[in-house]
């Protein structure tokens, strides 16, 4: 009997990550209570259905000085005959603004970057007023987006990118150990990482927001597209039998 691996399906916004806005949290979003999450269940994918994946990580920071930073990393893997085809993309950019960014006089944040986890973690540390911060992770089944639509021509096929302007820096690194994105400013740090071994922590997905200042707009987004092959007739039969058995078990209760 084939083994099934649980995978939580999270709805995906159809559009790409938008440009900076006055607020990075859409007004239409409704928080989900802990009580609802405690009873949430996942959907299942047959292990041999997964034929490839595409990982897209983007980080953005907008400062009240007019300065803005962005970083994008893309990693795609698809089956190609008996082997695999790998695509990468990395791009960073900084707009310095009208004046140089200055550090906060009283606010400070520390500690998040040194947290060690085995699994998934989203950490937000904010000190100051009128800040907007968002960590968002999305998993879906379906085709990925075009790398060309996310990464400029110069960044397509690249494994790393680094941009520094004054005291602002943005970087992307894609290695055999995973992918890492970092934005650094005097008002804090923004980072995302996925570690898969080769010297990095195993099975680690991390999103970190550290903001010390006022009126900062920051956002981390991570999107994983799992590409699947069609279910075989045997797979459909097996899924139907499992569904029937689950319904019978529920009735007996």
From TrEMBL:
> Is Signal included in the keywords of this UniProt record?
yes
Q: What is this protein called?
A: Peptidase C39
Instruction: Tell me which UniProt keywords the record has, alphabetically.
Output: Signal
**Signal peptide residue numbers:** 1-21
């Amino acid at each position: 009997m084939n083994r099934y691996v649980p995978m939580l399906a999270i709805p995906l916004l159809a559009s790409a990550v938008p440009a900076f806005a006055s607020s990075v949290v859409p007004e239409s979003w409704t928080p989900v209570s802990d009580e609802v999450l405690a009873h949430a269940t996942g959907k299942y994918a047959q292990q041999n259905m997964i034929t490839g994946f595409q990982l897209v990580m983007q980080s953005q920071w907008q400062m009240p000085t007019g300065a803005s930073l962005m970083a994008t990393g893309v990693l795609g893997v698809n089956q190609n005959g008996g082997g695999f085809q790998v695509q990468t993309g990395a791009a960073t950019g900084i707009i310095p603004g009208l004046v140089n960014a200055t550090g906060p006089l009283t606010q400070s944040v520390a500690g998040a970057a040194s947290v060690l986890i085995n699994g998934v973690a989203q950490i937000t540390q904010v000190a100051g007023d009128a800040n907007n911060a968002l960590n968002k992770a999305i998993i879906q089944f379906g085709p990925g987006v075009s790398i060309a639509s996310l990464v400029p021509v110069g960044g397509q096929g690249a494994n790393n990118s680094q941009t520094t302007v004054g005291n602002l820096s943005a970087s992307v690194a894609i290695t055999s150990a995973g992918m890492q994105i970092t934005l650094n400013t005097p008002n804090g740090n923004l980072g995302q990482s996925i570690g898969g071994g080769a010297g990095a922590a195993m099975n680690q997905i991390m999103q970190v927001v550290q903001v010390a200042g006022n009126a900062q707009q920051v956002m981390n987004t991570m999107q994983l597209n799992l590409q699947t092959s069609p279910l075989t007739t045997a797979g459909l039969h097996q899924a139907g039998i499992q569904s029937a058995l689950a319904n019978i078990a529920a009735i007996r209760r």
